[in-house]
């Protein structure tokens, strides 16, 4: 296999994917995007629960949990008819949600902060995405690894608030 052969494969498969007419695709309005994000969030958190008992899979669990929380926070923003940012910082997303009158407890934010340390950026070293990529230097990966159930409670709480905000007819 060489790079030319890879490019041929890429071109052929791209033609299959791009054969549909993108102009015919209907744009999802933001409240509908919020509902879709809630569904994705629930799937990622369910997957994190499946592997939680396997301690050697801690990094994938943290990654899936972080993805679930990122999506539920972005769903809150979309549920307010605002375009969610292309950002993975869970604390920044929490702040946006609170500014849109979503309620998170002190404990909720603390759990999200611990998760953000692994998912987005290490609090001490400032290394990003430690649950996805190995670090460039020898540094600890440790920190509090909250149980998935803590995040299920947060997800459920925010989902109820989204439903109250956009209306049950979207769900």
From TrEMBL:
User: HEPN domain: from which residue to which, for each copy?
Assistant: 64-137
Give a single Pfam family match: HEPN
Q: What is this protein called?
A: HEPN domain-containing protein
The cross-references to InterPro entries, in alphabetical order and at most eight, read: HEPN_dom (IPR007842)
């Amino acid at each position: 296999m060489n790079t030319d052969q890879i490019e041929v494969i890429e071109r052929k498969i791209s033609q299959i994917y791009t054969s549909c007419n993108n102009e015919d695709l209907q744009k999802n309005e933001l409240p509908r995007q919020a509902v879709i994000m809630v569904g994705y969030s629930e799937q990622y958190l369910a997957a994190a629960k499946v592997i939680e008992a396997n301690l050697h899979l801690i990094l994938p669990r943290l990654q899936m949990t972080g993805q679930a929380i990122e999506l539920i926070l972005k769903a809150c923003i979309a549920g307010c008819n605002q375009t969610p940012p292309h950002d993975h910082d869970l604390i920044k997303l929490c702040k946006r949600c609170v500014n849109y009158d979503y309620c998170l407890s002190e404990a909720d934010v603390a759990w999200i902060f611990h998760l953000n340390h692994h998912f987005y950026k290490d609090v001490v070293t400032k290394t990003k995405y430690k649950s996805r990529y190995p670090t460039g230097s020898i540094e600890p990966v440790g920190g509090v690894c909250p149980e998935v159930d803590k995040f299920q409670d947060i997800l459920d709480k925010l989902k109820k608030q989204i439903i109250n905000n956009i209306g049950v007819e979207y769900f």
